[in-house]
Amino acid sequence: MSYEVSESVEEGVQLVTVGGVTVPLGLTQAPWPDPHMDIDSYDPDADLMALNMGPQHPSTHGVLRVKLFLDGEVCVKAVPYLGYLHRGVEKLCEKLTYAQLTPIVDKNDYVSPMMNELAINMAIEKLIGAEVPPRAQYIRTICAEIQRVASHLLWLGTFGLDMGGAIGGGASIFMHTFREREMILDLFEELTGCRFHYNTHTPGGNRHDIPAGWDAKVRHVMDHISQRVEEYEDFVRDNPVFRARTVGVGVVDPLLAIELGISGPILRASGVDHDLRRDDPYMAYGDIELSVPVQTAGDCMARYLVRLAEMKESMRIATTLLDGVPEGPICSLKPVKLPGAVKAKEGSTYCAIESPRGELGTYIVANTERREHAHPYRCKLRPPSMHALQLLPYLAPGNNISDIIVVLGSLDPIMGEVDR
Amino acid sequence: MAVDESQERFEHPLYQFMEKMPGVDIGLTTADRILTWGVSNSLWVFPMATSCCGIEFMAAACGRFDMDRIGTIARGTPRQCDVMVIAGTITVKMAPRVKKLWDQMPEPKWAIAMGSCAISGDFYRNIYSVVPGVDTFMPVDVYVPGCPPNPDHLLMGFRRLQEKIRAKRAGEWVEPDSRPPMGMQSPSVPRYGSDRDPVWDEAQLQSVIGMDKGGAMHREGLTLPEPPAPPEPPAPPEPETDAEQEAE
Amino acid sequence: MSLPGDFLVLCRDRLGIEEVSDEGPMVPREQLVAFATALKDELDFRFFVTVVSVHYPEVEAVPADEEKGTEAVPGKPDCTQVCYRVRRLPNAERKTVVVPFRVYVPTGETTPSLAGVWVGADWQEREQYDLVGTVFADHPDLRRIMMPEDWVGHPLRRDYAIETAHFPWR
């Protein structure tokens, strides 16, 4: 390991290079708290209380149970329990055929379904060696970027709810962002027919083509949302309550984040410049210039700033790509009519994309048995939210309960993809 | 053993007194109607939002499909709520908690099963860890089908619940809701035989493939009715014969 | 995706494997932790991507049939293949790349846990233990994560029926 300390572009932030990756110096804080610490070994005189933040709670992250051990108001140890939404998707994928996987996997990260579809179909195409025509690549990329905007809008709304509560003022930003999200869902409804769970990607391309007049609507909506995002920034960024609750809260050590396998806005808010769309381009991302927002503070405010900047960047990418959508077919394979149409004889692939939560990967092993070529042998979906949730036992000790809720909100876990 | 007839009809001590008061029947039924109006128009909801339907529930609560205009506010604790909306898949691990929360709700309480995961388990119904429908362990009053249902449909479900509440409180008989019928199973084609040697129902298969040609009607050999002929254009106006004759 | 050169050199030096397939080198269990530590410290593969356990049920041996002229097909025992993937983050000199490596675990035996090398392996290995049944030795906290604590059986094994009944729901 080499330590080279240098100055970063921002004032006063020193950088250190560890393992070839440059991270801000002030954030690295080994040794990390031990999530498996025996609670009895904590101060025996302290009067500890075990509080269960049960699987059902008013925050909108889904069914996550966290057992908090509290010394007064301050948390000493947090143990998350998962599995309350375990639907056996991976087992179901083994029973179905490749052509039938898309609507099943759609429901994992239910806030940004286009990402799930993109991940699984890219993996299937890599396995069977199918090429995606350029028009489909552009459509897929545009849909992914618009979906990223919708996902971050939803995150912003629920983040406000987490901080303020439904009656306590958090609902204002919630109502505003959902109003914008409805406009995006209308766009998708025009393209695919559904507000949610589109089932529009298919191995080899897309099933729905861009209707006439859609690009004008997209431009209009993106323009409108850009203005509204400026309003949100004024709403929130200088709000002293927001600043008091997010600045300095939940600082994430970038080296810990890298080891845990966390990528996406959380990693970029801790100073690591890594984005799969730019570093390992897929689909149409190779044709555009992408600017990746990076913050060095690592706290909740930094994650908020990164997601907001990502929203603006995604809107810019979507409108730029719309200009240059090439003509041609939208699917390289024949439209799938029978479930057994897509077959893979052998091999295994791992394929990763950048979802709004980080690296969403799919690992598929093909079934080599003679009659089972149309079914995957094992299909594992790598959920970025699960790796992000692993941060909670490291971040919770030393914080109040209200800070833990804010931290959990800023990590943006979606239990559908954590539990699958 | 003779039946003690003195206990056969229970009368509240106040009944004798109230029977004699003038207008008490109208008064009590009007009071009941006011209470019904109050109950049905302020159904505070407890969202048991586990997965994707939870997002549509949140969208139904927001500005475009406003849930608050029917008096519904989402509360975080079951003790304050009238309606529990189960939105999302219920797994084996989660089901005891749902039952516990249902028991914690005070009477009168109703339940809406939102989304096909809550109604029947959707396509997860045969999976080891999924409960095939929430009505296996708790009573459901309204079923809102969809995956996920449009927020409009959820509001329709609330409307149906309001009608049921009003009818029941007025003393009418309310047919208990049952699971919505599954209807045509297309586009999944029923297979006979085993997974390894499937036997396709050729007719149904062709009807699915030929969906753009009318689907099931194509299978039956029916044709779509001819569209009605467009109306004849109005006749052009008669030329002015008098003026021409005068000119000649 | 082609594997990077320094990874292939490491495989050759540490494991003696000359040709590495796309699915990664098959690392013997005794050398797993040392190999992983070398990957992390020397080659900077610090980003833990995923660990996947794939269960291969027992395949019976087919004896040679002289009448039909077929040869004997050896049987395969019940085993699990644990596939790891780790990523190296990019910087000015290098691009990001994912490398795989595999471990072969016969059913009933344990494989060393890599939670001491990459912290992210903690929950992922717990999930693979829960769903497939691979036991990771020296894991700090190996218990079920997805299924209820008292569940019997490992659902993602190939011989586990998807409709397995669980009282009282079915």
Describe this structure in words.
The complex is a heterotrimer of chains A (420), B (248) and C (170). Chain A is α+β, with helices and mostly antiparallel strands and 420 residues long. Chain A has one domain: Cytochrome-c3 Hydrogenase, chain B (Orthogonal Bundle). In chain A, 42% of the residues lie in helices and 15% in strands. Chain A has 15 helices and eleven strands. Chain A has helices at residues 89-95, 101-105, 113-128, 134-164, 171-192, 214-237, 240-246, 254-260, 265-269, 276-279, 300-323, 384-389, 392-395, 401-411, 415-419, and strands at residues 5-7, 14-18, 21-24, 48-53, 65-71, 74-81, 201-202, 205-206, 348-355, 358-366, 376-382. In chain A, a hairpin with a 6-residue loop joins strand 1 and strand 2. The longest helix of chain A is centred in the middle third of the chain and has 31 residues, at 134-164. Chain B has a domain at 40-155: 3-Layer(aba) Sandwich (Rossmann fold), CATH 3.40.50. In chain B, strands 1-2-3-4 form a four-stranded parallel sheet. Chain B is extended, with a radius of gyration of 29 Å. In chain B, 31% of the residues are buried. Mean pLDDT of chain B is 77; it is low at 184-191 and 214-220. Chain C has a single domain (1-59, 76-170), classed as NADH:ubiquinone oxidoreductase Nqo5 subunit (Beta Polymerase, domain 2, 2-Layer Sandwich). Chain C has helices spanning 5-15, 32-41, 121-131, and strands at 47-56, 79-88, 97-106, 110-112, 135-137. In chain C, strand 2 (79-88) and strand 3 form a beta hairpin. Chain C is flat and about 60 Å long. In chain C, 38% of the residues are buried. The mean pLDDT of chain C is 85. Chains in contact: A-B, A-C, B-C. The interface between A and C is large, with 46 and 45 residues.
